[in-house]
Here is the input.
Amino acid sequence: MKWILGINKEIAVNNDQIQARRNYIQCVTGAEVSAWGFIQVNGPVRKKYLCCMSNDGIDGTFITAHINDVYNLCNCREICTGKFVVANTCIWVSMSHKRLLFQMMSVNRVVELFFAKQELSVDINHTFRQSTTLTNIGRFGFQTSLSERKLFANRGKGLMEAIRESFIPVSPVILLGD
Amino acid sequence: MKLKALSHYDGDTDTRFGDCILLYDSTSLVVYDCGHTKHAEAVETFLQSNPSISQVYIVVSHNDSDHTDGVCDLLDWLYVQQYRYTVSVYSHQYLKYVDIILDKIDDGRRTRDSLKQSLLAEFDNIKTIIESAQAHGFLTVEALNGISVGNCTIVGPTIDEFTDVAAQAVDSRVDNNIGEGHAEETVMNAASVQLKCKLDNAETILLCGDASPSYLHNLDSYDIIQLPHHGQLEDAQAIFQELNDPYAMKYFVSDNTGSGATSGGSDKLVQYMKDEYYSPALNTKGGVVFIPQNGFGSVAVSKPQGVRLGEMDFRY
Here is the structure.
């Protein structure tokens, strides 16, 4: 499985936190994890991200980054042709999670998308947002989202089951309330 | 309010001192349990060094000796202070609910009077405390859900829950445990009086004695939760399970259980919290606990700041 991290200072923070995140990945996958390396995505904006691989035989990608970076990354064939993507990020703009799924389904009709659990927040323009906050609580050693903490707590159930319980699956069906 | 949770004395970690948690401001003191005469002496010393305190509220969470053994000594001391303190004692008063409990048992054999005798025998420590308080002329108050105790509030158990407990305690036909799975508690523990208090740093704490997790409600509304029964692992796990984000909560443990083989305590919990990356609980096993920790605090504690993953560079 691929694990991708935005390199923005507020997400990656420092080397200690990046290494703590790698230890976390080892714990939740129970597999060997490669060292972090850089990948570059040639989208509308050429941008680098940190990436490591867990040797667990699972064909999916876990992305912790701002939502625009998740869009950028999911344009990559290597990512959207996998079995699933876990977007550890904010929905922020209404329906952006559905749009991301549709974007990936245009390449891979059976891809699954999971989003981090969202909270309702108000931004500086007084607009309601569905958001995910990374916070340095507990003894993880790096900033985690609520879903990441739940993933850790559920790790004994196996990685896929833990992901299903800790993140929200995005349905392609659009309901009236969406 | 500030919290001071008492610990062991003179380096003696073998003796079971039980619980004694003080909540106080400049004029009042709430004593939540007093499980040993040493704790009673410590409360006396505390009152002597805080002469502006005139109201003393004593909450007896439940009948077990490690929560009650120092209460009568403390009441005696308060009595000989010659009306310097206004004293109120809060506990469950099971006899007032004898008819409800009789209905719950419904074994066709018990009379009202025989049930009263059974309740008095079963809840003997509470009986002694209430009799002692009344003999000294102190107010005795039923610890009912919603009752104010100084600046604190009793938030559980409900009448239905504690009469269930009383019925189960005196009914020999039923199991003596309440709760599910590993988080079972004996009936005596299960209905411990729960106390909610807002501290000087604006954090709200829940004290719950040895209560069964199934009797604790609205857990996400607190900032600090006492992990019940001196930090018993299974109870704590049930609470973690119940919380939306257990890592975002602070925890407090009153573990003065000593070194007896069957004393219980928080050792397994401490290891579990370490393995699961929880921040460690504030634990009296390591000494007296103060909350707020610096002893001051009129300023609200700020929540840990985080980064929202949509706020930066959003465009697509």
